[in-house]
Amino acid sequence: MKRCAIYGRVSTDSQTTDNQIIELKKIAELKGYIVTEIFTDEGISGAKGREIRTGFDNIIKGAIKKDFDLILCWSVDRLGRSLQHLVSFLNEIHSVGCDLYIHQSGIDTSTPSGKMMFQMCGVFAEFELGMIRNRVISGQQRAKSQGIHIGRPTKLNEGISHSIKYMKTQGVGIRKIARDLGVGVSTVYKVLETA
Question: Across the strands, what pairs with 40?
Fold first, then answer.
């Protein structure tokens, strides 16, 4: 009987990995696998690396320690959005004899066609991320050209600008100015640079 680990990830804190985990447990049961561990990353983008995604990092470490023979995952974009990261992940787990099953794509990397399909899915995941990025940048540029402010709303007004300059002439430190006026340190620096 194969020992497997389950990996689930969601990008925002308002989402949950529960649905992914429930379905993957059913698949493991149907295939006769023993689930040894479940790893999750919640509220973390797939574009982030191992150093941020502790669940992802721990599943790789578990594979290296041979705690399981197979990793079950809901979809390729749950593993990552960068082709480089995906290929590196696959090479790392395969070097220690661990395979990967991706439910949504029906990919099983214990087969040559499964390995090829995984790499193709990675290419499409990276392409999709690039397209999303381009749409976001295009939307921001359009909004800016229409005079719409992009980013967090600012508390900065003439009164706060005057107070920042006055407090600085009185010898008050940057952090104290920011704390007392309820603005960011970068806002204080920005005002003082333009003064």
Answer: 8
Q: Dump pLDDT digits (tens) for 132-180.
A: 888 889 988 998 899 887 877 777 888 889 899 999 999 999 999 999 9
Structure token digits, residue 8: 């689930």
Burial class for 89, CB neighbours closer than 10 Å (0-12, 13-18, 19+)? buried
User: Using CA atoms in the order 142, 144, 147, 153, what is the torsion angle rounded to 10 degrees?
Assistant: 130
Pull the structure tokens for residue 83. 């082709």
The two structure tokens encoding residue 49:
């690396």
Q: Which of 100, 129, 130, 132 is nearest to 117 (CA)?
A: 100
User: Which residues, at least 6 apart from 4, have a Cβ–Cβ distance to it below 8 Å?
Assistant: 28, 33, 34, 35, 36, 68, 69, 70, 71, 72, 101
For residue 38, which phi and psi values (nearest 5 degrees)? -125, 125
CB atoms within 10 A of CB 66: 11
Which residue, among 11, 4, 2, 3, has the nearest Cα to 79 in the 3D structure? 11
The reported pTM is 0.60
